[in-house]
Amino acid sequence: RNTSGIMVVAKDNQVHAKLSAQFEKRDVQKEYRAIVWGRMEFDTDYIDTFMCVHPRAREKMIVCDEGGNARNAFTYYEVIERYQAFTYVRLKPRTGRTHQLRVHMQHVGHSIVADRVYGGHKSLKMKSLGIQAEADAAELESDVLIERQALHAYCLEFFHPQSGKPMKFEAPLPEDMQNTLAALDQYQKEV
Q: CB within 8 A of 42, min separation 6: which ones?
């Protein structure tokens, strides 16, 4: 609900079945953009874990050992931009587990900004960038930069369910993420 961007919806059961088959066979290519806490060490890497439902908080997922109800989850990532205390990253999930990207980023110590469930913060504020309510910050309409998880479904590629032609859809970053990146560019750039 708090992730912006592209989503695919089938118009009828036949189309739904064909699209679902592509997702199951992992023929659908998905790309997300996220702003995460901290500086990610590697320019590119992957996260390959098992995930299962949290034993006490059933609405959450966790990284767990293989076995039982655990399911494999694989995410490739690539750093787009590093800031002093944040990283803007491209995420490409190979599997489609519930909350996979959010759980994986938390697992590697770089929770998605403003992720209330897996990040511990409900928003990102200017003071988190080291800026107090000074002249620069006062120019902004609000101290709050983003109040939802900084995760955006950027690109989706699949084959048309009727014609079989390859299709690619991209959604530009929403205003809240653009504004957050602009603030990071202004106040968090590497020296």
A: 79
d(CA 3, CA 5): 7
Tokens of 15: 């189309």
pTM: 0.91
Q: Within 10 A of 1 (CB to CB), how many other CB atoms are there?
A: 4
**Contact in structure between 34 and 102 (CB atoms under 8 Å):** no
Structure tokens belonging to residue 184: 């990071």
Taking only the tens place, the pLDDT of each residue in 3-43 is 999 999 999 999 999 999 999 899 999 999 999 999 999 99
For the stretch 159-162, contacts whose Cβ atoms lie closer than 8 Å and that sit 24 or more positions apart, written own/partner, are 159/22, 159/27, 161/10, 161/14, 161/15, 161/18, 161/19, 161/22, 162/15, 162/18
Query: What domains does the chain contain, in order, with CATH numbers?
Result: 4-121+149-172 (3.30.2350.10)
Place of tokens 């602009």: 182
* Predicted confidence (pLDDT) per residue in 118-130, tens digit: 987 899 998 888 7
Provide the strand spans (E) within the chain: 4-5, 29-37, 44-53, 61-64, 71-82, 86-93, 124-125, 144-146, 151-159, 166-170
